Amino acid sequence: MSFLWNLFLPHHTNNHKAHLIRSSYLFLLSFCFVFLQIFLNFFLLAKPSVLGFSSNITPERIIELTNAERVKLGLSSLQENKLLSEAARQKAADMFAFNYWSHISPSGRTPWAFFTDVGYKYQYAGENLARDFHDPESVITAWMNSPSHKENIVNSKYQEMGVAIVDGTLQGAETTLVVQLFGTPFGASSTTEVRKSQPIVEEKSASAPKEVLAKSPQPQDASLVSVSSVSKAPVASPLDLTKAMAIFTVGVLLGVFAMDFFLVSHRQTPRLSSRSLAQMMFLIFVLIASLLMKEGAIL
Amino acid sequence: MKKIFEEIKEHLSHYLVLLFILSFGAFAFVYFQRFPQAQIVSIFLTASFYVFWGAIHHYLEGDLHLRIVFEYLAVALLGFLILWSIINRA
Question: Membrane among the record's keywords (chain B) (predicted)?
């Protein structure tokens, strides 16, 4: 009991300063935090089904949510196109292979090259990218909150789309990439009429719709591989766990500093120490930043 | 709360400077939400300025001691490591 007392509260037995907020204990806490992160990384590799970096995002769900957004605005649903899905899968594979997070590859390859590679002759085309999201709703919300991405999702010129969701290591971090391609086949008339089909997913491209100048590659439907879907549903995400650990650690420290501040002020204990109020202000900054940190990125 | 107000009132200008440092750090953190490296730089700078603030504050108060600097350094390091971990996971 006295151990806990000395750990959390200022008292004459601990020289009027809780052990937990002494620099030695704080450095130890930092070491423990780093150690836990390293342990988490090893656990992530050993048990990906428990601590997955990916989530229950599936192309079908992305398509459904995208079309739901279009239907809300009275636009037609987009039909899933296997060629576009294959182009999206190839784009994701290219991003992992050449380790880039951009619409254009380091070698200058544009998104439109993937359309033509799979034999999709387009009149209009667009691309939306997302990474590190844990659920499809968050992906769609992030895109809809971005004017340029939203413009793609609710673009009446598009008639079809393809989605690929691929896991891999990008720029040193395990990542789930979501690639959504929009297109209108060459020769098709763009229309804004509402079709009463089931909700279909559609994504917004980061760049403006592009006029098709495509040559005529051969359709290759039969050889296409369908988009990969992430079927595993990890119990917890490393981000959520890290945030929980951070909030718990900062919360406990805030409490101990607050108790220190009030007890020492009340007792008017003379001592050589840092300002507890300043330490609390810095910890509140850390707490707010931790809470504001959002998952995922879009492009 | 009265104790807090008394403490702030006693060192008002110092705490205003600290508030500015932390507010600016929080703003930079949010502003660079999609740029992890910039976020890491912003929290590193915020933590560094925080330690400097502590050292200067105690120097002006006439009670600067290495042990006190270590206390600020320890909290700043812990805060930096926590946010760095979260940024890397996001």
Answer: yes
